[in-house]
Amino acid sequence: DQQVKQNSPSLSVQEGRISILNCDYTNSMFDYFLWYKKYPAEGPTFLISISSIKDKNEDGRFTVFLNKSAKHLSLHIVPSQPGDSAVYFCAASARGGNEKLTFGTGTRLTIIP
Amino acid sequence: GAGVSQSPSNKVTEKGKDVELRCDPISGHTALYWYRQSLGQGLEFLIYFQGNSAPDKSGLPSDRFSAERTGGSVSTLTIQRTQQEDSAVYLCASSPQIRGGDTQYFGPGTRLTVL
Q1: Model pLDDT, residue A34
Q2: Which chain B residues are Cβ-neighbours of A108 within 8 angstroms?
Q3: Cα distances (Å, whole numbers) of residue A82 to A37, A58, B14
Q4: What confidence tens digit (pLDDT) does each residue in B29-87 have?
Q5: What is the mean predicted confidence (pLDDT) over A11-22?
Q6: Total beta-carbon pairs less than 8 A apart between chain A and chain B
Q7: d(CA B94, CA B3)
């Protein structure tokens, strides 16, 4: 039972354009969402998060949007840079408990120079 | 400052042997998590520590898996009688968990290969 889904295993985007990565979840108890970026042979690196009380959070080139009614979130990267090429994981947790993260299977983003 | 460290970075073992994986969390972080990533899969939760106690072991796949944490710091994940399906990258994360919604910071992982 995959509670967090990333339906696109890969995405290629031209340098300078916008990258949009999508994530869907099924558990309505989730109220905190995070995006992690992972390079080969390294651990995931925290990128940006959003609480369920918000519908948007922005940090530099990265913006996360949350649509609670659709149980959908997305990560926008603009402008995309070659260093953004990595695997991106969406994760969710239910705060107030042990806050363990439930991860999606990841989307491999390739930025084409 | 120092991040989460894990050792060894790679471990190759024979089926049936026991292995120990170590995690050093960020100093002062009270919460510690173990996850694993099997080939082509997302990260899967294994166990959570708050201080030295483990209130949630629900992700451990079998009784061959155990973990402990001492002094509220270092944690060891032990896999007994390893099987080929245990091959994965084992990741440790820590967070301050002073309040809800603290970010988890990950170590580089230990790649375990069971032959």
Answers
A1: 93
A2: none
A3: 14, 20, 40
A4: 999 999 999 887 889 999 999 888 888 888 999 999 999 998 889 999 999 999 999 99
A5: 98
A6: 67
A7: 9
Tell me the residue type at A36. Y
Phi/psi of residue A109, nearest 5 degrees: -100, 130
Take residue A102 and report the two structure tokens written for it.
Answer: 């439930």
CA distance A33 to A30: 8
Q: How far apart (Å, rounded) are the C-alpha atoms in residues A3 and A26?
A: 5
Among the partner residues B59, B100, B104, nearest to A96 by beta-carbon distance: B100
Question: Does A41 lie at the interface with B, CB-CB under 8 angstroms?
Answer: yes
Q: Do A4 and B97 touch (CB under 8 A)?
A: no
Q: Residue A107 has what pLDDT?
A: 96
Q: Which residue of A has its CA nearest to B59?
A: A100
Encoded tokens for A28: 């309505």
Q: Which residue of A has its CA nearest to B4?
A: A43
